[in-house]
Amino acid sequence: MTILLTGAAGFVGSHVVDRLLAEGHRVIGVDNLSTGNLDNLRHLYRHPRFEFIEHDVCEPLMLKRSLDWVMHFASPASPPKYLERPVETMLVNSRGTYQLLELAKGRGAAFFLASTSEVYGDPLEHPQREAYWGNVNPIGPRAVYDESKRFAESLVMAYHRALGMPVRIIRIFNTYGPRMDLYDGRVVTNFIRQALTGKPLTIYGNGNQTRSLQYVDDLVEGIVRYLGVDHSGPINLGNPEEFSVLAIAEQVKLATGTAAEICFCPLPENDPLRRKPDISLAQQLLGWRPQVTFDTGLGLTVEQARLRLASLDERLRA
Ligand code: NAD
Ligand code: UDP
Hints:
By secondary structure, the protein is α/β, with parallel strands linked by helices. The protein has helices at about 10-20, 80-85, 85-95, 95-105, 145-165, 185-195, 215-225, 245-255, 280-285, 295-315; strands spanning about 1-5, 25-30, 50-55, 70, 110-115, 165-170, 175, 200-205, 210, 215, 235, 240-245, 260-265.
């Protein structure tokens, strides 16, 4: 198949590109490099079935090629990054999604949207099922991400209902792994970077808030399975193992062997208290469940982070 994937230079997108190429597909990666990095695609420069287009997906993409899928992964995903880019974030998920749906319509392609567990906001239902409508503050700072992803989901379903376009929506829960930007401000990257550079691990609030952390290979497996299953609504993809932020800090300390301390900082506004996916639907429809434990995934992530920090260090010294 020929697949156009936006956000290809980002953390998740680049892993999906690798897997699609390994499955024999032709991939056109699109990215404006706002939060992504071409280093994530460097190994593909001469790949015969990969092509990269630098482009802001909020603008129309003139492409004459026939496409089987348009997969929309472009959007800042880390809270500090989307809070720094509030309008861009709202636009890539609204105008960007519209432009890409129009492209899919014109090319007769199916559409795949990377949505997020953030559509559940600060959930009043736990764990979160796809049928839960969420608890989002529409004018809070995080709304630029949450509400625009909710709009994107609505728009995708509108194209499906009005035009019969085949669509897929995944709600991704916190995902980590190699290639994450170590300076993106997310919990796993902050703790790993702090631990490896001997700085205190910054816990926001008291650290009792929870997250469920999924290793990126598990997510990619779920995505590929969903491409082959005829279902149009959203499916949660996440690891139901739930950890407090304090426990994540302890695990990172163990995995890195750091003597760094833990310090406590103010909790950001509207920071969700609990998050954990109900993955019954993914189990039933995709026969999928995560395979990688936090212990194993963290070890692999720390290993790559050490290499990245060392090479950054070398570049700074040079
Ligand atoms: P990322 O920031 O690493 O990747 C996003 C990519 O999109 C970047 O390469 C960026 O340059 C690109 N991009 C942003 N705006 C663009 C625009 N207007 N035009 C073209 N490219 C643009 O983030 P990620 O963690 O890889 O997230 C990828 C997708 O998965 C996002 O849609 C995000 O909402 C979703 N998601 C991720 C997580 C997670 O834990 N990583 C959780 C939930 C949802
Ligand atoms: N967090 C933290 N210290 C950090 C970064 C994040 O305690 O250095 C907390 C954050 O307040 C949130 C959780 O860790 O409760 C997950 O944050 P992240 O930004 O990774 O993703 P979110 O799930 O909030 O989108």
